[in-house]
Amino acid sequence: MQEELMNIVVVGHVDHGKSTIIGRLLADTHSLPQGKLEQVKANCERNSKPFEYAFLLDALKDEQAQGITIDLARCFFKTSQRKYLILDAPGHSEFLKNMITGAAHAEAALLVIDANEGIQENSKRHAYMLSMLGIKQLLVVVNKMDLIQYSQEKFNRIVADYRLFLNHIGLTPVNFIPVSGMQGDSIVALSKNIPWYQQQTVLETIDSFQKSQPLTQKAFRMPVQDIYKFTKKQDDRRIVAGRIESGQVSVGDKVIFYPSGKMSTIASIEAFNAPKKLQSIEAGYSIGFTLAEQIYIKRGDLLVKEHEQKPEIASRIQVSLFWLGKSPLVMGKEYYLKLGTTKVRAHLEKVLHVMNAASLESKASTTVQSHEVAVCLLKLHSPIAFDRPENNELTSRFVLVDNYDIAGGGIIQHALEDNTDWMREKIQERNANWITSDISREERAEKYGQYPSLIIITGQKGSGRKTLAKSLERALFAQGKKVYYLGIGNVIYGVDADIKNTAQETRIEHLRRFSEVLNILLDAGQIVIITALNLTQDEVNFIKEATLCQRLFKIWMGQEKTTDIQENLWIKDKLISPEELVNIQMSLKNKINVSE
After folding, report:
1. For 222-270, what is each residue's pLDDT tens digit?
2. Is the CB of residue 335 less than 8 Å from the CB of residue 402?
3. What is the pTM of this model?
4. What domains are defined for the chain?
5. Where in 471-551 does DSSP place strands (E)?
6. CA-CA distances (angstroms) from residue 157 to 2, 152, 445?
7. What ranges in 321-458 are assigned the alpha helix state H?
């Protein structure tokens, strides 16, 4: 039987003795390599340097020189109960990102407080991060008791103050233990130096931590990393690759790709240099699958088993986040949200409240400053699939990227409604029941020498949208492209002839039906040019979602911009010269040509 392994992160303010505590655990459980302890002690003696147990852990040269942990040190030790992977997270504020990286992979945490210095800023900030990341098993270790002469009164004061803080953020520690890492008091055995403490030692408390539910027992989740196609020796496999975050799956299982809702069946499990064909696979493995039905999917989709718990789908979300960016998180600026393999543009819609993670002072604000935590509403440019943290923390944690830097992160609390939720359900139902052709989109693209693409021409009334669309259609047709121009009016007075109302909800229904027609044309491999009046970015996002089209080119026409659309090209003069038409074609070249 495989030995049980638990991940524990050790956090706390800088110089509060985390590495010393870990060094003691390694030494006193005899988990060090043969002769390692003696080697470190001899090295200290040669350099006229007093020995510290932290030296057993601080392997990086920069750490030795500066005396602080700047990266995440990992080490193993073992008890009769189980094996442990200990993550020594840096306490310095500048390396808070590294601390979060360690905590995100932990099942339990030790938080170290210096008895002499007391509760410090990062003592509180780190606890708040643990709370946000969903870590519920917390042991508070009050270290350096020897520096306060093992005072029970001072220990009790720290316990009372810190317990009050933890109650505010919803954390209930399993215990507070007075220790001296340097002297070894209460680490693996009780000490006569602390006669008033007769409860569990640090080691006994760690052994009492409950192992998390195995990832294999949770609902199946695999973010799609990529789709690989092989052409040598008539190999026509399309392999959907990724890392299984939770659950397990077998050949023959029905699976759904979210957010699109497209469905297929696992035909085979493909592993590199596997000695035999696998029939099932579980969490923790990077793997590939072939599908019985060839459907269009993309990187960032979330692969889920049909009859297991569905993820949530949303383009507006409420989140708890911490911000570490050099510049504040502000409204009106574009960021990227990354969740698993999904990367989507996002912006801050609203800050519900901001809290200083150390003081717990809450304030109203429209921005989030560095080292602040906040509850915010985020608007995404396209919907994503995710789980609530209580169902699966791995698919609820995200990061925000600002100018190529990871500047913040947190957990998605829940989805928020928007006016296209009901339409999204219709799309998912359509995708689940779509009868797929044996000819894939990729095959059509290769045969036609063009990618299915959507050219959206929108803007003000009388700006020349239809004239440009027809000229562009003629120019592409002359190049041998399979291209079709479709004005929204063709659908309104045809497919939508039964709709009489002109209210806003009717516009949304027109848009849904228009998108269904576009989906058929794009599925057939066409380049489609459409015209519509004053499309917003939300409406463009919906068309993209409904058609699964990844190749959009947006042209705005008119002297003024009257919507929030993010156009690729803005044409102010409705009279397009032949030279300008050629320039537009050149701009489209990389979008539509397979050979480019």
Report:
1. 999 998 887 666 667 789 999 999 999 999 999 999 988 888 899 999 8
2. yes
3. 0.71
4. 5-208 (3.40.50.300), 216-305 (2.40.30.10), 313-418 (2.40.30.10), 439-592 (3.40.50.300)
5. 483-487, 527-533
6. 43, 9, 71
7. 421-433, 441-448
